[in-house]
Write a structure and sequence with these properties.
Elements (H helix, E strand, L loop, with lengths): L12 E11 L4 E8 L10 E7 L5 E7 L8 E7 L7 H7 L5 E8 L13 E6 L3 H13 L6 E7 L8 H7 L6 E6 L16 H7 L8 E7 H13 L7 E6 L3
């Protein structure tokens, strides 16, 4: 994709301007977008992003929101898919002031709203952390962080998106945060390294007797593996909400 997008807003599309860029890993950026007439969003929702090239060619992809609530800006965290069409542009080429279009907020199933202190389990693989980060923010703001457990699986420590946010949210009285490393661990790590198995999941999540609502987000294979393990551990499938992503 090349340059700025055409700013014709039809069918719910809104113009958005890149207001802030943070390079958070070697392949991922957190983007803040100023969006015209943004109506607000619930934690866990997503948007469609549309880019329009100078020749009129358009590409649309869906991205989870790392932000929630009513604000003039929204936040996306984009991890580059090397052979992708949109993510390399957003990670490598977009600059402050560039414009694109968004539609949303979208989705009403994979959302969390503050409703007391019922236990909530979040499980993320890679960039699947993005909508769960919004839930962490919402729970913290609602004073419900102690009811949230988060299991975050990444290849290496340097691949973690939102590490600073999560570490801050997991302080005393905050979210119960468990890291899982599948390729290599940081110095001093005493836990196991490798793909999440049922034992590692069981050690990190709320016990089934607590009847937690569970949110799992990540690549398709990760989500299916984790959801199957949770059911085998006795968690009700009706309590497990999943969101998965893959190639276009």
């Amino acid at each position: 994709m090349d340059g700025g997008a055409l700013l014709v807003i039809v069918g719910g599309w809104r113009s958005a301007t890149i207001a802030k860029i943070d390079d958070v890993t070697a392949t991922a950026r957190v983007l803040q977008l100023a969006v015209e007439d943004w109506p607000g969003s619930d934690a866990g929702q997503h948007v469609d992003v549309r880019l329009t090239a100078e020749d009129g060619y358009q590409a649309v992809r869906s991205y989870s929101l790392g932000s929630y609530g009513h604000s003039a800006t929204i936040e996306l965290a984009v991890d580059e898919v090397p052979d992708g069409e949109v993510s390399p542009y957003l990670v490598r080429d977009v600059v402050l002031g560039d414009q694109l279009e968004v539609k949303g907020p979208l989705g009403g199933y994979f959302v969390w709203r503050a409703e007391g202190d019922a236990p909530v389990q979040l499980i993320a693989g890679g960039s699947g952390i993005v909508p769960l980060a919004a839930m962490v923010r919402a729970a913290t703001d609602a004073g419900a962080a102690a009811s949230v457990r988060l299991l975050y699986s990444v290849r290496r420590a340097q691949d973690a998106i939102y590490r600073e946010l999560l570490d801050d949210a997991s302080g005393p009285g905050g979210v119960d945060l468990t890291w899982a490393y599948t390729r290599s661990a940081p110095d001093g790590w005493e836990g196991r390294v490798g793909r999440l198995d049922a034992a590692a999941i069981a050690d990190a999540v709320w016990p089934r007797e607590k009847h937690p609502t569970i949110y799992v987000c990540g690549p398709t294979g990760f989500v299916e593996h984790v959801a199957d393990a949770l059911v085998q551990l006795g968690h009700s499938a009706a309590q497990i909400k999943t969101e998965r992503f893959g190639g276009a």
